[in-house]
Amino acid sequence: MTKPREKTREELTAEIEESKKKIRQFENREKMLRQKLSVEERKARNHRLCKRGGFMESLVPELIAMPDEDAKAFLQLALTSEPAQEFLRKRAKNGNAE
To answer: Which DSSP helix (H) or strand (E) runs through 63?
Structure first.
């Protein structure tokens, strides 16, 4: 059996540089994927908020004409009512809460 040839200093240096280049490429790819994920999460959140806002306006059409502060006060009052709190407690108890 013959002994494999040892690499020269230049070959080793070139291999190190190539490895560093690959690391930078993977880091850039990771950055791009994280940005893409962030955009997708933002789109999903925006869609969810618009959809739920639409539900609220369809149930309470008066919300459309209300100023933001009045709408916020109304929703806060409605959601802190005892029936709403009981609904949330039951939902959490059944394991449906996120």
So the answer is: none
Distance separating alpha carbons of residues 94 and 87, to the nearest angstrom: 11
Condensed to tens digits (0 to 9), the pLDDT of residues 1-49 reads 677 788 899 999 999 999 999 999 999 999 999 999 999 999 999 999 9
Secondary structure (DSSP) of 33-52: HHHHHHHHHHHHHHHHHHHH
Compute CA 74 distance to the chain's CA centroid, rounded to the nearest angstrom.
Answer: 29
Q: Please report where in the chains the tokens 């240096």 appear, as a residue.
A: 13
Structure-derived torsion over alpha carbons of residues 78, 79, 81, 83, reported in degrees to the nearest 10: 110
pTM assigned to the model = 0.64
